[in-house]
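Here is an idea for our session: we take a single protein and study its fold together. To get us started, please write out a protein record for me. Once you have written the record down, we can walk along the chain together.
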Amino acid sequence: MTARLPLRWFKSSYSGGSGTECVEAAFSPVSVFIRDSKQPERPHLVVSARAWAEFVAVARCGAEGEMS
């Protein structure tokens, strides 16, 4: 059996300062884990590292006004 490394969660820099919009993420070599920091015990999303990279690239384009 392979030992699982503990995840190192961090809060998104885009999370709201009021404490109502807190998203946390953790990275592994092949996956990205995403959860609601207000309810960390609840199930979380898991996406491939490649899917995450593609999402970030599209989000950056939108933030720069390049998406239609």
Q: What stands out?
A: The chain has a mean pLDDT of 81. The first strand starts at residue 10 and ends at 11. The chain has one helix and four strands.
